[in-house]
Structure formats: C-alpha cells, structure tokens
Amino acid sequence: MDNSITENENRPPDNIGASLRKILFTFMKIGAFTFGGGYAILPILQREIVYRLKWVDGGAFMDILIITQSLPGPLALNCSILVGRRLRGTVGGLIAALGIVLPSFLIILLLAAFLLPVVWNNEFVQAIFYGLRPAVVALVAAAACNLGREFVKDRFSLGILVLLLAVSLAFHLHPVLILALGALLGLFLFRKSDPQK
Amino acid sequence: MSFLLLLNLFWSFFKVGLFSFGGGYAMISLMESEIIAHHGWLTPSEFIDIIAIAETTPGPIAINSATYVGFRIAGIVGSTVATIGVVSPSLIILLALGTFLMNTIKEPRMGSIIRGLRPAVIVLILLAAVSLGKTGLVDWATFAIATTLFIFSTLFKVNPFYLIAAGAVLGLIFYPY
After folding, report:
1. B175: alpha, beta or left, given left = phi > 0 and alpha = psi -120 to 50?
2. Which residue of B has its CA nearest to A94?
3. Residues B95, B165 within the same domain
4. Are residues B105 and B161 in the same domain?
5. Are residues B15 and B98 in the same domain?
6. pLDDT band at A186 (very low <50, low <70, confident <90, very high)
7. Mutating which of A45, A119, A137, A177 best tests the B interface, going by the most B Cβ atoms within 10 A?
8. Judgement on whether residues B54 and B114 belong to the same structural domain of the protein
9. What is the ipTM of this complex?
10. Residues 55 to 84 of A: which have CB under 8 A from any B CB?
11. Is B30 in the same domain as B115?
12. Residue B73 CA to chain centroid, in angstroms?
C-alpha cells in the first residue's frame, strides 16, 4: 500500500521498527496527558514522535500538520492517524486513532457514569460549574479572536467574515451552510491571488 | 434504547466530525444544531456543562463531548456509538481516501477554498460564543469572570486548562450560595 503523502513523505520511514503495541501505548500516553485540546497537543506530539522516538523527521511532521489543518476532524486525532499510517500502514493508523481516543473515552465514561451522578447535587460542584460556564464562554470567544488575528489579514477574508456573520445572525443558517458559503466565496475571491497562503 | 436512536446518534456525530474544520471550537455550533436544535437530546445548560467537562479532561474536545453526550443519551453503548461516529470521517478520509485526497489538497483551488473556510469557521465560533453566553452569563459575577478570562486568553495566550481551573475557583468564590 502506498503511504506517501507529499514529497517529504516519499522518503522511507525513519523508524520502521515501531510495533503496533508501541504505537498504541505511545498515543495513549499522549492522549492521557494533554489538556486543552487541539493546539495544546501539538508540541507534545512533536516532542514524542519527532524528537524522542524519531518516528518521523521534522519535515514530514510539518507536512502532516499542514495536511491536517486543511481537513475536517480533531487535529490531534488526524495527526495521530497520519503518523500511525506512515509507520505501519492502515492498521497503524487505526491503532494510533484507538490510542489517542481511548484515554479520553475512559475518563469521560468514569466521570459520566460514576462521579458526576454522585456529586452533581452538591452545592460546591454547582458553584464550580457556575464559574466554569463563563470560563467556557471566554475561551470560545477568545478562540474566535485569536483565529481572526491569525487568519483574517486581507480585506477579502474580512469581507467574508462580516458578510457571513451578518447573514447568519439575520437568518439563522445551518453551520454546514455557513461553511459551504465560505468555501464558495473563497473559491471566487481568492482565485487570482497567491495559491500558497 | 432503540436501534434508530443509535443510528441517529452515529449519524449526528459523523456529521460533526465531517464538518469540523479548524479544531474543537468550530464544532460547538455544529453540535448545538444537531444535539439541541435538531434532536432536543440536551438542554443548553447541559450542553455548556459538557463543553466545560470536555475542557477539563485530557484529549480532543470533540471526542470528549461525543463520549459524554452519547452516554447521556444512551449509556455506554451510546457513548461508544457517538465516539466512533465522530472519529469515522477522519479515519475514512485519511486511511481510505488517503493518497487521492492528499494530492487534491495541493491543488491551488483547494487553497482558495480553505482561505474562504477560515473566516466561515471564525463565524461559527463567534456564534457558538454568543449562544453559550446566553446560558453561561446569568449575572454580573459570571459576566465579570468571562470578561477577565477572555482578556487573559487573548492578551497572554494562557493555556485553556489553567483558564478553566481559574473559572472553577472563581465560581467557588462568587457562587450565590
């Protein structure tokens, strides 16, 4: 099976000796100790996969990052699948996905099934969630601002942002429709500009 | 628990996985439209609590939320089905379509599409912030907590985990007991 993705990926893997069990446990460790989701997971992934285990080199890791950022799905999951796939083909990709998912899955199950039902009516737990809710609102709003600072740098991007925001506030569009409109506008507006960025 | 419910659960989270461009926060809007608006599986208040739980536990938010929502709706079977649903699009795209898709991504036209998707993703996240705000900001204290943490997050780029921890502490202090 052809595992190559880009030019950098066509080079043979740096470490072919990665066993499926090693792949599973490595990604389970990464999944269990990364708090804060997506972008927080990347430096840890890089440290383990590139520097410590030397499973992929820096260039191939960059390629993997670029590819996953333009595809749907959780970033950490997509990166793991591509690293696993590179090491041991489709089975490696599946095992890496299982590894990254399993710790979250088990922790959430324990919480939902055993811990939360017991403590939910406790006044202090209610107080904690009273503070967690505005924290979530802050994080989500901040994520929008940080992404805006990073990606909305030209007038076309800003135009798409303002237009879609106005239309969706006025008509309550389905999220998928908002994405489709963005893709369509991008296709027309960015046709003549540099294809690189 | 009916087979149809599980099928709906799988399909809902499959869509969430398939259309979640730009990381965890973008899929909040999608999950809202599927879980609250379309199926009425959770109340807005339960939903914001799930996001909070997903932020405090390790792993990608999308996976944490899928597991939790699945459990609330249909127990352990439900959480398994929802989690498989949310990871399936990634597995299919990266493992099955693989090389074909990778070559498509390098097309200049794909670059244009992605540049148009980015502002759309930001709109989705803004909308998610607004609707979560309606549930989470109930008095002056919660409004102040949100404003403070927002400033810390945008100006100092503090890791979300610490901001969530700060939210918990501030909640314990300011809760109207």
Report:
1. beta
2. B91
3. no
4. no
5. yes
6. very high
7. A137
8. yes
9. 0.88
10. 67, 69-78, 81-82
11. yes
12. 17
> Consecutive sets of 10 residues in chain B, 177 residues long: mean pLDDT of each?
90 92 81 90 90 84 90 94 95 82 74 88 92 93 96 86 91 93
Q: Which one of A130, A151, A184, A197 makes the best mutation probe of the B interface by having the most chain B beta carbons within 10 Å?
A: A130
Q: How many domains does chain B have?
A: 2
* Residue B7 to chain A, least CA–CA distance (Å): 19
Q: Hey, is the C-beta of A39 within 8 angstroms of any chain B C-beta?
A: yes
Residue B16 and residue B100 in one domain: yes
Could you list the residue range(s) of the whole structural domain that residue B67 is in?
Answer: 3-134
Chain A residues whose CB is inside 8 A of the B11 CB are: none
Q: Please indicate, yes or no, whether residues B42 and B125 belong to a single structural domain of this protein.
A: yes
DSSP string, B85-149: HHHHHHHIIIIIIHHHHHHHHTSHHHHHHHHHHHHHHHHHHHHHHHHHHHHH--SHHHHHHHHHH
pTM value surpassing 0.80: yes
Please enumerate in sequence order all residues whose Cβ is within 8 A of that of A194, keeping only pairs 6 or more positions apart, or say none: none
Which amino acid makes up residue B20? S
Q: Are residues B130 and B141 in the same domain?
A: no
Q: pLDDT-based confidence at A59, cuts 50/70/90?
A: confident
